[in-house]
Amino acid sequence: MKKIDIYKKLRSSGLRPTKQRVEIAKFLFEREKTFHFTVESLNKLLTKKINSKFALATIYNTVHSFKAAGHLSEVEVRGNKTYFDTNVSNHHHFYDSETSELIDIDASDIVIQKIPKAPNGKKIKNVEVFINLKN
Amino acid sequence: MKKIDIYKKLRSSGLRPTKQRVEIAKFLFEREKTFHFTVESLNKLLTKKINSKFALATIYNTVHSFKAAGHLSEVEVRGNKTYFDTNVSNHHHFYDSETSELIDIDASDIVIQKIPKAPNGKKIKNVEVFINLKN
DNA sequence: TTTTCACTTTAGAATTATTATAAACTAGAA
DNA sequence: TTCTAGTTTATAATAATTCTAAAGTGAAAA
Ligand SMILES: [Mn+2]
Ligand SMILES: [Mn+2]
Ligand SMILES: [Zn+2]
Ligand SMILES: [Zn+2]
Question: Is there a contact between A112 and B110 (Cβ–Cβ < 8 Å)?
């Protein structure tokens, strides 16, 4: 994803392309593979990557803005911290509790044959599969 | 589950049957259906049920002891608080984000036809399916 | 039955992740 | 260039959970 595209991405979702947002967006979206992170890990990596460091509140604000704009998704992982995901398409995860690492599974790589129907007046929004790993 | 069984359950897992543990165990395990709860909700319900209230730290200690003994499992749910589950068998969940409510799905009610193989030297420990609900 | 002590409970402090506040800053429209 | 709504920031506040260390207790042993 080129710099021009980063600006487009931000502008088209009503986010002013500030220095902070552009830096963070470049870090998050200029990559080939899915990136899973916590605010803490992102903050550490950003501080290492660029010389200036942003306020922690800015990382929180930005990540939440990106999520609200649909550029990030949130993954429910065992533990205290919130995990974010640059893959916003419907997909599943391996979870390695040894390393606290998430690995993407393409939606088409898991096929569910039988599924119960939703209870009383509710509908199924989506199905998330977690495959927990061991050594 | 009778009182005698509560004592057995505690003793056999190396937990001294103190007044607090017995009360909490009775509240959690003397029921037909699965019970999903947070420490906060359990504390509220216990305070209502029995006249005396226990220290919050005791609820935490007890719930963690029960989990370590295999009498409770932990369910990963979106949000800040930790959810516990009296159903310790392998099963899945509906999650209603409107009400923050979990509903059990028997393992046999979900059949997965296709599943990817675990990465590099890892093995699959277990598979958890979450069906998120909407209205 | 009494003694003893490792285990348990408890109140409160500490820690951790996250959110709120409010003052200073800035992108970009006018 | 000016103006202002949106943004960043340091810091305080909040919320869930864990830690601490003193007081209490179940039950093994005397
Ligand atoms: Mn979590
Ligand atoms: Mn959670
Ligand atoms: Zn992912
Ligand atoms: Zn359950």
Answer: yes
A15 CB and strand D closer than 7 A = yes
Which residue's CA shows the smallest distance to C1' of D15? Answer: B80
Q: Which residues of chain B have pLDDT under 70?
A: 1-4
Residues 66-85 of chain A with CB under 8 A from chain B are: 74, 76-78
Tens digits of residue pLDDT in A83-135: 999 999 999 999 998 888 999 999 999 999 999 999 989 999 999 999 999 98
Kindly report the backbone phi and psi dihedral angles of residue A114, in degrees, each rounded to the nearest multiple of 5, phi listed first.
-130, 135
The answer to whether B127 contacts A122, with C-beta atoms less than 8 Å apart, is: no
DSSP string, A81-100: SPEEES--SSEEEEEETTTT
CA dist., res. A42 & res. A62, Å (int) = 11
Name residues whose C-beta falls within 8 Å of residue B37's C-beta, 6 or more positions apart in sequence.
Answer: B45, B83, B84
- What is the model's pLDDT at position A99? 87
CA pair distance B61, B21, nearest whole angstrom: 10
Query: A123 contacts in B (CB within 8 Å)?
Result: 133-135
Domains of chain A: 3-83 (1.10.10.10), 89-133 (no CATH)
Percent of chain A whose pLDDT exceeds 70: 97
B101 in A contact zone (CB under 8 Å) = no
3-state helix/strand/coil string of B33-90? CCCEEEHHHHHHHHHHHCCCCCCHHHHHHHHHHHHHCCCCEEECCCCCCCEEECCCCC
Query: Among candidates A29, A120, A22, which has minimal Cα distance to A62?
Result: A22
